[in-house]
Design goal:
The protein contains four helices and two strands. Helix 3 packs parallel to helix 4. Keywords: Glycoprotein, GPI-anchor, Lipoprotein, Membrane, Signal.
Length: about 120
Amino acid sequence: MAKAAFSLVFLLLSFTSGSGLPVSVVNAQKTWCVAKPSSDQATLLANINYACSQVDCKILQKGCPCFDPDNLMNHASVAMNLYYQSHGRSHWSCDFRNSGLVVISDPSYSNCIYA
């Protein structure tokens, strides 16, 4: 009995990610990238410029779904998520020099749908 329990624990541990959740659960869960609330204005602007040089950020233009609220935190979060989604949703594609945050709650609002 003890040998069977040990085998089961070993099997479960071999199929877990660093978070302790089974790999299949972590990989199946939808995630988004947003700017950390503690990010300064210069960092947010740099993140927008970098992300939008790599992906299409038209949804941030005036009159488009994600323009409002018109502030750097919102625009950076949308741009960073566009980059994150287009680069495979890997942890490092949301790093942005440690100013990105991977979240499991959908940050979409109104007509601004985070991909």
